[in-house]
Amino acid sequence: MNGPEIHCRFAPELHLFVPAERRAGRTAVVTDGSSTLGHVVESLGVPLTEVGRLLVDGHEVPVSHIPRAGESVEVRAVERPQQVPGAPLRFLLDVHLGTLARRLRLLGVDAAYESEDIGDPALATRSATEQRVLLSRDRGLLRRREIWAGAYVYSHRPEEQLRDVLERFAPALAPWTRCTACNAPLREADKDAVRELLEHGTRSAYDAFAQCTACERVYWRGAHHARLEVIVEDAMAEFGGAATGRQ
């Protein structure tokens, strides 16, 4: 770039994405005179999925704004809870976020997940086709123009990832109502109807069951339930009301 010089200040939440020398106050940026402000921000490392308001000399501008020499730009982070207009709130997670996908499903959140690496173009296309918020730690993927909406997942730790998504998007929670394996809704199942799918010990010890409406996986309050209950109770205490349904 060899054109107008502007000065940028990034919100603390965005410091993760920019070089260390751009994290302290205003820093000079030389533009090419034709690229949009959105392009300039992305070229500095910040995915637009993470950008909230853009202020130029104190006035809000769109990402299509062409910077002019001497302008002072403030790049703010997305406001939380983030509103995603235009479709029911639902998610698509890439191959690296399987545990997060299962925990979102446990809470009744619609979370599609690709267990195999289908490639960035296919993920972006699915996001657009199904109008799903694409969750990823891949900044390059989140910069693809064809995605419908996206969000960077800031932590490596599943429990922190879950809190981040719930805080950012505030989805409606309905624990124990969605299959953690395939994401489809669950229905109550009569014990006799699923008897042939159960081990003998399970048939003897449990009477209440649910079954996936798509893959037909059967759920019951087994030894794993106490661990899952902690996840549900913690999420509902902070982000929802009383848990409903069962697994």
Q: What is the residue-averaged pLDDT? A: 91
**Oligomeric status:** single chain
Cα separation of the termini: 57 Å
User: What is the 3D shape?
Assistant: elongated
Rg, alpha carbons: 22 Å
Overall structural class, as computed from helix and strand content, comes to alpha/beta
> Percent range for helical residues?
25-40%
Low-confidence stretches: 242-247
Order of helices and strands: EEHEEEEHEHEHEHEHHEEH
Strand order across the largest sheet = 2-1-5-3-4
Proportion in β-strands = 15-25%
Helix segment tally: 8
Describe the sheet with the most strands.
5 strands, mixed
Count the strands?
A: 12
Please write out the topology.
Layout lengths: L4 E6 L16 E4 L6 H7 L7 E6 L2 E3 L10 E6 L13 E3 L4 H9 L4 E3 L6 H11 L2 E4 L2 H4 L6 E4 L5 H12 L16 E4 L1 H4 L5 H6 L3 E4 L5 E2 L5 H15 L8
Protein name: Mut7-C ubiquitin/RNAse domain-containing protein
InterPro entries: Mut7-C_RNAse_dom, Ub_Mut7C
Summarize this structure as a short list of keywords or feature phrases.
247 residues; 5-stranded mixed beta sheet; 4-stranded parallel beta sheet; 12 strands; 28% helix; elongated; Ub_Mut7C; Mut7-C ubiquitin/RNAse domain-containing protein; Mut7-C_RNAse_dom
Concise synopsis of the structure shown:
This is Mut7-C ubiquitin/RNAse domain-containing protein. The protein has 8 helices and 12 strands.
Question: What this model shows, in words?
Answer:
- It is a single chain.
- The chain is α/β, with parallel strands linked by helices.
- The longest helix has 15 residues, at 225-239.
- Strand 11 (209-212) and strand 12 form a beta hairpin.
- It is built from 8 helices and 12 strands.
- Helix 2 (98-106) crosses helix 5.
- The chain has a 5-stranded mixed sheet, with no helix packed on it. The chain has a 4-stranded parallel sheet with strand order 7-6-8-9, with helices on both faces. It has a 3-stranded antiparallel sheet with strand order 10-11-12.
